[in-house]
From TrEMBL:
Signal peptide annotation: none
CDD domains (alphabetical): RT_Bac_retron_I
One Pfam entry name: RVT_1
Domain Reverse transcriptase: from-to ranges: 37-214
Family to which the UniProt record says this protein belongs: Belongs to the bacterial reverse transcriptase family.
Database matches in InterPro entries: GrpII_Intron_Splice-Mob/Def (IPR051083), RT_dom (IPR000477)
GO molecular function: RNA-directed DNA polymerase activity
Full protein name: RNA-directed DNA polymerase
Species of origin: Klebsiella pneumoniae
Keywords annotated in UniProt: Nucleotidyltransferase, RNA-directed DNA polymerase, Transferase
Domain of life: Bacteria
Taxonomic lineage: Bacteria, Pseudomonadati, Pseudomonadota, Gammaproteobacteria, Enterobacterales
Amino acid sequence: MEQLSYTYSNLLECITYSDLMENKSLIDYSARVLASKSAQRKAAEKSFLEDGVKEINISGKKGIKFKTIEDKLISRLLVRNLKKSYKISRVNRHDIIKNLIINLKDGSPYNIARLDIKSFYDSIDFKVLLDKIVSDGKVSRYDINLLYKFKDSLDQKMISGLPRGISLSATLAELCLQEIDSFFLKEKDVFYYSRFVDDILIIHHGGNNKTVHY
């Protein structure tokens, strides 16, 4: 398996514009290098999330944020590795609408089904997901240990499912839905399938009363 190592240069690339706006000292390049090297040391010492996470409220739902820039950078590099291992890429809304219009111009009879997974993030069984990641063998043992530390930090806050507010949760949620994507894309009656997070759109040739079991 080919994955990015937790070197300061790779971690440096994980610093975003929002980090600079949140911490003005990072506007200085030397400060960003220092933060990245500090994150590298933390990764080497296997002390990711040793201070836990901070719980926040996002539109009435439980969310979290990382307490340190080091944890934030390590988690982002972990996200890159997960996306690389599972070939995770998210389609943007503009492309979905564009492709939908093209398919609707086909002219043949069709049915449209729109699905929304209720309380999706909250309903994810993180333990089951972790077991799947381990059994798949696509992720390094080091990254798996990071995921277990992430789960431990959520358990300490008694947070079930995946919390909102961080890219790691979004990536893990995408991983959860890959099997559903694969299922519908293989259905012979489905000629268009698209998903944006937990919002699913299906166009199919099946009868009005057709029921799909998954």
